[in-house]
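I have been asked to look over a protein record a colleague put together. Alongside the sequence sits a line of tokens, each denoting a local backbone shape. Please read both lines and tell me whether the tokens look consistent with the sequence. Take the sequence as given and treat only the tokens as open to question. I have pasted the whole thing underneath without changing anything:
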Amino acid sequence: MVRTDNRKILSAFAKAGAALLALVFVSVFCFTCIYPLKVNADSEVIIYANNNQTNIGPGDIIKIDVLASSFPGITEFGPVEFSFDTEKAEYVSYEIGKDISNYYVSGTFKEGVLTITGRDQMMNTGADGSGDEDSSASFYSDDQVVLFSVALRVIPGSTGDVNAWINKTGSFMAGDKNVSIRSGSRISVPIKRSGLSSDATISSLKIRGTSISPDFNPNITEYTCSVERSVTEVQVSVLTSNLWAAVVIGGNQRLNTGDNAVTIDVTAQDGINHMRYTVHVIRRESNIPEDSSLVDLDGKTYTFLDIPEAVSVPDGFYLTTKNINGFSVPVYVKDGVASMILYLYDGTQAPGLYFYNSETKTVIQYDSDNMLIKDSAILRMTEVPADVIVPDEFKPATFDTGTIILNGFENDDGDFICYLSDDSGNKDFYYYDKSTGSLSRYRFADKKAELLYSYLFDVFLVIAIIEAVIITIAVYIIRRLVSDRTNPRPKRV
């Protein structure tokens, strides 16, 4: 009986233990799914150089990648110093790795040493734009990551090996943690070929002002890019894989709207091997960049549109290009006038011309029947508010300027005024000079003050007259008394 009870107790303990193990396993599994394990910031990262090219000869480009064995949420790194045999190769350029393209990377080359530093741009604003630093927002990878690639040119006449190495790694930070860094061993790129090069590839292809698709690869020969309608010529920059390869570029001038085939013909040093790279440059039909818009002071969004040829603009405005809200767009401007004319669509009304003031961020729809252009502002006729009083001597009137009929007020002297609003929203009365057509702010005379001054003048004039009379009488009496004393009259006997 006792043995049976012991078995039951052991069985119960076994079941409880199995249940506890299962609970622990499930908990660990769930925790791992919710909070995936990452490389500890204190784990070691190796920084090393790598090159996979073969059959290198004098004049050839050597591309050396500088890699990190892993990238555990690095927020900033460097300075990383890259060195090489300057007696056998010369520095050409460097490019940052695609995986860290959102990092701000700076590089300097001096006395045979390329120095690179980098910082995650997300650290400037935080992952949510709040300004708080968040190391979890930085790029993370368990696999190797290219920090930057260096292009070197083998110096003509060089033999043996071109050696490259990392002589300094600087510090690598993941948030506020310092990552342990170790430099890999140096690499040697053997210079094997001594005869003429048969390499007709290019190692770099760039179109100024735009980017090509797909990403450049020496073995891919077809690319596409797009430019604005205003662009009629593109600047093509290529770097041949071999110094003595000949390059001929064609089709990059006098671009038509639509597809333009720009060709890069490369002939190898041996004069036999040849390659052609083609870039399809799409010149847009529109002068307006894609998805370009502006937001005014009130938060309203307007879309840029091409200005139709049939649309007429005010006299004195000429067409040019301005950078607005980060977009290069066609605008009409006039010397001395702060506002410029754009062709916009507000999403509700029909597209049309608008005046835009870049300083005040105000947008006003152009109305040729209701606007005047002053030397430094755009003025439009506005109703006089109820709390603004027009003096009685001014009566409602209109005046035809020859280009616009002004609604305003006129007095008996022929002075014409109108109530206008400028492109900053400021409202006031303006005096219109009928002879010159000029406008100036008008200030009404204070009639009450003028009347008071008139009364005071009359009172003081009367007082002055009375004082003058009193003084005249007093002087006469005094002179009479003095005369009587100095020349007394004889007494009668």
User: Anything to note?
Assistant: Residues 80 and 169 are 4 Å apart (CA to CA). The two ends are 184 Å apart (CA to CA). Residues 447-486 form the longest helix (40 residues). The longest strand covers residues 145-154.
